[in-house]
Prior knowledge:
heterodimer; A: mainly alpha; 82% helix; B: mainly alpha
Amino acid sequence: MPTRSQSLSIALGACGILVFLVGWQLIPALGIISAEYLPPPSAVGGELIERIGEASFWEALGDTMITWAIGLASALVVACIVGTIIGLSPFLRRATLTTIEFLRPIPSVALIPLAILTYGLNREAALVIVVWATFWQIFIQVLYGVADVDTVARDTARSFGLGRLARLRYVVLPTALPYLSTGLRLGGAVALILAITSELVIGNPGLGRLIAFSRSVGDSVGLYALVVVAGILGLIINLVLRTVERRVLSWHHSVRTEVLR
Amino acid sequence: MTARRLVNGALYSVALPVLLLAAWAASPLFATNRFFPPPSRVAEAFVKTWLNESFVVDVLPSLGRLAFGILISIVLGIAVGALIGSFRHLRSFSEPVLEFFRAVPPPVLIPVLAILLGINDQMKVAVIVSGGIWPVLLNAIEGVRGIDPIMRETSRSYALGPVTRLFSVVLPGAAPQIMTGVRQCLSVSLILMVISEMFNSSSGLGYRISYFQANYLIAEMWSGILLLGLVGVTLSVLFQIAERIVLSWYHGLKEVERA
């Protein structure tokens, strides 16, 4: 049962979408930008519905999702383990700082040539790119989160004789969780970006390859429809990860006050 | 004492990279693999490829677009984020549309922006902003929303005006989270700078690297990756200096807690 403020926020959100769509429809209709370059949402929507009926579309979508899921899961596991180990030890944090600072900013796309040479034009090459980029997003958040532990809480736990594992569970985990869930959400988005980008550049099957195809044949309506699909996909991923975040962080004050009002 | 500290710090920062480089140079695993040339060859290629006129032709324009894109992302992200984060109804109104744009993977916007703006510098900067702005914006909204309610209500009870509240409570309170967003913005922007130059381009860092790969110039390709790494490190150092200045109170607070 949604409360009054919740239904208000849903109505406001719907208004926002409506205003945006009307604006988009008007720009080509008024000739501000030619419909050839910016097809109106009515045309793009029609194309979208047509595509949904095609099996090849769902196949491409499935391919993209598999690459995304494998990439995100691998990056998450590795980032949590490595991030916790390094974040908890001041010695390791200092010793790895320059290496991390050098490796992290290397753009994943710079590794595309290397991935192609090593694995060929297939999903493995795409996964190298996805995991590399996603790993750093989550890893940095875990590192920040683990290092952000409240010193009073940490020392109190120690005085009360909590063991290493108990401290990890009751002190480090609650502190790092908001960071980790932000990292997961950003990582989920980045993994999708890189999954689609690698399909665009490497040409392994998926949504990105369909987009590259529409672009090369000059099908601008199809291009916009696929971009909308990519956006909706990202939206669904974000919504799912956000729901997970809300569940996990229901005790945190930035979520709690929102519910109370 | 301070000299020892300096030496210690230097040791900490170079020990692991030196170990890794030594392992790379010595490992028989890489010696036989022609895709992994030894570091000496990469260094040689680096000097030959980048330290000449191509620095002015390819590297500087790329860096200029990157700097411009990042600047726009940060300023716009904080301004819009602070506005949206401060008003609950505005947040509800704009969230679905913003979420959608944030969710669109920016590389797929390259063909769209190429149609709309043509292939030029503006389009490349627009690609960078289209991806770089979201971490800043999202973190600014979350940061403003997450400000301690007691702090917010106290400043209101003391009858601080909206402008004072913005600059002395809201923005500083959200700053730690905004800085996290800026940090992510930097790496996303660098990625997009490279991708924007890999499509329909004839100059720039991204173009050069994909050219080397297509022509199997392996050591040159690695030197490009190295250069991108160096750009990333420079950005990160600049960021850390900026963070020290912006968040000096926050780090001070943490230190006091630790003492």
